[in-house]
Write a structure and sequence with these properties.
The chain is mainly alpha-helical. The chain has a domain of 105 residues: P-loop containing nucleotide triphosphate hydrolases (Rossmann fold), CATH 3.40.50. Helices cover 60% and strands 9% of the residues. The strands form two sheets. A two-stranded parallel sheet has the order 1-2. The chain has a two-stranded parallel sheet with strand order 3-4. Helix 2 packs across helix 3 and helix 4 runs parallel beside helix 5. The chain binds adenosine-5'-diphosphate (ADP).
Protein backbone atom coordinates (compact mmCIF):
# COMPACT_ATOMS: atom_id res chain seq x y z
CA UNK A 1 0.00 0.00 0.00
CA UNK A 2 0.94 3.63 -0.40
CA UNK A 3 -0.53 6.91 -1.70
CA UNK A 4 -0.88 7.72 -5.42
CA UNK A 5 2.55 8.47 -6.90
CA UNK A 6 4.56 6.70 -4.22
CA UNK A 7 5.82 4.10 -6.69
CA UNK A 8 3.64 1.07 -5.96
CA UNK A 9 3.37 0.18 -9.65
CA UNK A 10 7.09 0.56 -10.39
CA UNK A 11 8.20 -1.35 -7.32
CA UNK A 12 5.53 -4.04 -7.78
CA UNK A 13 6.92 -4.92 -11.21
CA UNK A 14 10.40 -5.35 -9.70
CA UNK A 15 9.06 -7.30 -6.77
CA UNK A 16 7.01 -9.81 -8.81
CA UNK A 17 10.08 -10.54 -10.93
CA UNK A 18 12.14 -11.01 -7.79
CA UNK A 19 9.57 -13.23 -6.03
CA UNK A 20 8.33 -14.91 -9.22
CA UNK A 21 4.64 -14.54 -8.38
CA UNK A 22 1.77 -13.00 -10.39
CA UNK A 23 1.12 -9.25 -10.13
CA UNK A 24 -2.49 -8.37 -9.24
CA UNK A 25 -2.93 -4.65 -9.75
CA UNK A 26 -6.56 -3.62 -9.26
CA UNK A 27 -5.80 -0.32 -11.03
CA UNK A 28 -4.51 -2.22 -14.11
CA UNK A 29 -7.43 -4.67 -13.97
CA UNK A 30 -9.91 -1.78 -13.85
CA UNK A 31 -8.19 0.13 -16.66
CA UNK A 32 -8.31 -3.02 -18.78
CA UNK A 33 -12.02 -3.47 -18.05
CA UNK A 34 -12.59 0.18 -19.08
CA UNK A 35 -10.76 -0.39 -22.36
CA UNK A 36 -12.75 -3.52 -23.10
CA UNK A 37 -15.92 -1.54 -22.45
CA UNK A 38 -17.46 -4.25 -20.25
CA UNK A 39 -20.36 -3.30 -17.93
CA UNK A 40 -17.98 -3.46 -14.99
CA UNK A 41 -15.46 -1.28 -16.83
CA UNK A 42 -18.01 1.36 -17.75
CA UNK A 43 -19.24 1.54 -14.18
CA UNK A 44 -15.71 1.72 -12.73
CA UNK A 45 -14.69 4.44 -15.18
CA UNK A 46 -17.14 6.91 -13.64
CA UNK A 47 -15.45 6.59 -10.26
CA UNK A 48 -11.88 6.52 -11.50
CA UNK A 49 -12.30 9.66 -13.62
CA UNK A 50 -13.29 11.54 -10.47
CA UNK A 51 -10.53 10.12 -8.31
CA UNK A 52 -13.09 8.22 -6.20
CA UNK A 53 -12.69 4.65 -5.09
CA UNK A 54 -14.61 2.04 -7.05
CA UNK A 55 -17.22 0.42 -4.72
CA UNK A 56 -16.03 -2.57 -2.69
CA UNK A 57 -18.41 -5.18 -4.24
CA UNK A 58 -17.03 -4.51 -7.73
CA UNK A 59 -13.43 -4.75 -6.55
CA UNK A 60 -14.06 -7.86 -4.48
CA UNK A 61 -15.68 -9.61 -7.42
CA UNK A 62 -12.71 -8.72 -9.63
CA UNK A 63 -10.05 -9.83 -7.13
CA UNK A 64 -11.96 -12.94 -5.99
CA UNK A 65 -12.17 -14.25 -9.55
CA UNK A 66 -8.50 -13.53 -10.21
CA UNK A 67 -7.34 -15.28 -7.02
CA UNK A 68 -9.16 -18.44 -8.10
CA UNK A 69 -6.97 -18.79 -11.18
CA UNK A 70 -4.27 -21.45 -11.13
CA UNK A 71 -1.26 -19.14 -11.24
CA UNK A 72 -2.19 -17.58 -7.87
CA UNK A 73 -2.16 -20.81 -5.90
CA UNK A 74 1.49 -20.41 -4.82
CA UNK A 75 0.99 -16.78 -3.81
CA UNK A 76 0.75 -13.40 -5.48
CA UNK A 77 1.46 -9.71 -5.02
CA UNK A 78 -1.57 -7.49 -4.45
CA UNK A 79 -0.98 -3.96 -5.71
CA UNK A 80 -3.55 -1.27 -4.93
CA UNK A 81 -5.75 -3.68 -3.00
CA UNK A 82 -7.07 -3.65 -0.31
CA UNK A 83 -7.80 0.06 -0.16
CA UNK A 84 -10.62 0.17 2.40
CA UNK A 85 -11.18 -1.51 5.74
CA UNK A 86 -14.09 -3.42 4.16
CA UNK A 87 -11.79 -4.77 1.44
CA UNK A 88 -9.14 -5.74 4.00
CA UNK A 89 -11.65 -7.63 6.14
CA UNK A 90 -13.18 -9.37 3.11
CA UNK A 91 -9.69 -10.34 1.95
CA UNK A 92 -8.80 -11.79 5.35
CA UNK A 93 -11.99 -13.87 5.35
CA UNK A 94 -11.41 -15.08 1.82
CA UNK A 95 -7.79 -16.04 2.51
CA UNK A 96 -8.72 -17.69 5.78
CA UNK A 97 -11.29 -19.87 3.99
CA UNK A 98 -8.56 -20.90 1.56
CA UNK A 99 -6.06 -21.53 4.36
CA UNK A 100 -3.57 -19.08 2.81
CA UNK A 101 -3.34 -16.09 5.16
CA UNK A 102 -1.72 -12.83 4.11
CA UNK A 103 2.05 -12.95 4.68
CA UNK A 104 2.76 -9.24 4.97
CA UNK A 105 1.54 -5.75 4.15
CA UNK A 106 4.21 -3.40 2.78
CA UNK A 107 3.56 0.32 3.08
CA UNK A 108 5.54 2.74 0.91
CA UNK A 109 5.82 6.26 2.30
CA UNK A 110 6.87 9.57 0.78
CA UNK A 111 6.16 13.22 1.54
CA UNK A 112 3.28 14.82 -0.33
CA UNK A 113 5.48 17.32 -2.21
CA UNK A 114 7.39 14.47 -3.83
CA UNK A 115 4.12 12.65 -4.64
CA UNK A 116 2.60 15.62 -6.44
CA UNK A 117 5.84 16.17 -8.38
CA UNK A 118 5.97 12.54 -9.54
CA UNK A 119 2.31 12.44 -10.54
CA UNK A 120 2.64 15.66 -12.54
CA UNK A 121 5.31 13.99 -14.67
CA UNK A 122 3.27 10.85 -15.39
CA UNK A 123 0.32 12.07 -17.47
CA UNK A 124 -2.27 9.31 -16.94
CA UNK A 125 -5.94 10.33 -17.47
CA UNK A 126 -6.59 10.57 -13.75
CA UNK A 127 -3.38 12.50 -13.02
CA UNK A 128 -4.98 15.92 -13.59
CA UNK A 129 -4.35 18.14 -10.54
CA UNK A 130 -7.97 18.24 -9.31
CA UNK A 131 -8.34 14.46 -9.67
CA UNK A 132 -4.98 13.88 -7.94
CA UNK A 133 -6.12 16.02 -5.01
CA UNK A 134 -9.25 13.87 -4.66
CA UNK A 135 -7.20 10.65 -4.88
CA UNK A 136 -4.87 11.86 -2.13
CA UNK A 137 -7.93 12.78 -0.03
CA UNK A 138 -9.47 9.35 -0.57
CA UNK A 139 -6.18 7.75 0.39
CA UNK A 140 -5.92 9.69 3.63
CA UNK A 141 -9.55 8.97 4.54
CA UNK A 142 -10.10 5.40 3.40
CA UNK A 143 -6.76 3.68 2.91
CA UNK A 144 -4.34 5.18 5.44
CA UNK A 145 -6.33 3.61 8.36
CA UNK A 146 -5.30 0.20 6.99
CA UNK A 147 -1.77 0.71 8.39
CA UNK A 148 -3.22 0.39 11.88
CA UNK A 149 -5.26 -2.63 10.87
CA UNK A 150 -2.15 -4.48 9.66
CA UNK A 151 0.11 -3.12 12.42
CA UNK A 152 -2.25 -4.59 15.01
CA UNK A 153 -1.93 -7.97 13.26
CA UNK A 154 1.87 -7.58 13.32
CA UNK A 155 1.97 -7.74 9.52
CA UNK A 156 2.87 -4.16 8.62
CA UNK A 157 6.29 -3.25 7.17
CA UNK A 158 6.91 0.43 6.46
CA UNK A 159 9.35 1.42 3.73
CA UNK A 160 10.74 4.83 2.82
CA UNK A 161 9.63 5.42 -0.80
CA UNK A 162 11.85 8.48 -1.33
CA UNK A 163 14.80 8.60 -3.74
CA UNK A 164 15.59 6.69 -6.94
CA UNK A 165 13.61 3.48 -7.71
CA UNK A 166 16.70 1.27 -7.35
CA UNK A 167 17.32 2.55 -3.84
CA UNK A 168 13.69 2.03 -2.83
CA UNK A 169 13.81 -1.51 -4.21
CA UNK A 170 16.93 -2.20 -2.14
CA UNK A 171 14.94 -1.29 0.97
CA UNK A 172 12.08 -3.54 -0.15
CA UNK A 173 14.41 -6.50 -0.63
CA UNK A 174 15.84 -5.95 2.85
CA UNK A 175 12.31 -6.06 4.27
CA UNK A 176 11.52 -9.23 2.28
CA UNK A 177 14.50 -11.08 3.75
CA UNK A 178 13.42 -9.90 7.21
CA UNK A 179 9.93 -11.34 6.53
CA UNK A 180 11.40 -14.63 5.30
CA UNK A 181 13.60 -14.96 8.38
CA UNK A 182 10.62 -14.26 10.61
CA UNK A 183 8.52 -16.89 8.79
CA UNK A 184 11.26 -19.52 9.24
CA UNK A 185 11.62 -18.86 12.96
CA UNK A 186 7.91 -19.57 13.69
P1 LIG B 1 -2.88 5.08 -7.82
O1 LIG B 1 -2.52 4.22 -6.66
O2 LIG B 1 -1.70 5.84 -8.35
O3 LIG B 1 -4.05 5.95 -7.54
P2 LIG B 1 -4.11 2.81 -9.22
O4 LIG B 1 -3.84 2.38 -10.61
O5 LIG B 1 -3.79 1.87 -8.12
O6 LIG B 1 -3.30 4.17 -9.05
O7 LIG B 1 -5.65 3.20 -9.08
C1 LIG B 1 -6.30 4.07 -9.99
C2 LIG B 1 -7.80 4.21 -9.63
O8 LIG B 1 -8.43 2.91 -9.73
C3 LIG B 1 -8.10 4.68 -8.21
O9 LIG B 1 -8.08 6.08 -8.11
C4 LIG B 1 -9.50 4.08 -7.98
O10 LIG B 1 -10.50 4.86 -8.62
C5 LIG B 1 -9.43 2.75 -8.71
N1 LIG B 1 -9.01 1.62 -7.81
C6 LIG B 1 -7.88 0.88 -7.93
N2 LIG B 1 -7.82 -0.06 -6.97
C7 LIG B 1 -8.93 0.09 -6.21
C8 LIG B 1 -9.45 -0.54 -5.04
N3 LIG B 1 -8.81 -1.57 -4.46
N4 LIG B 1 -10.62 -0.10 -4.53
C9 LIG B 1 -11.28 0.91 -5.09
N5 LIG B 1 -10.87 1.57 -6.18
C10 LIG B 1 -9.70 1.18 -6.74
Amino acid sequence: MGPPGVGKGTQSVRLVNFLNVPHLSTGDMLRQACQEGSDLGLLAEQYMAQGKLVPDPIILQLVGKRLDQGDCQEGCLLDGFPRTLGQAQALDELLQRRGTPLTAALELKADSEELVKRLAGRGRDDDRPEVVRERLRQYARQTAPLSDYYARQGRLFEIDGGGPPEEVFGRIKAVISQIKKKAMSV
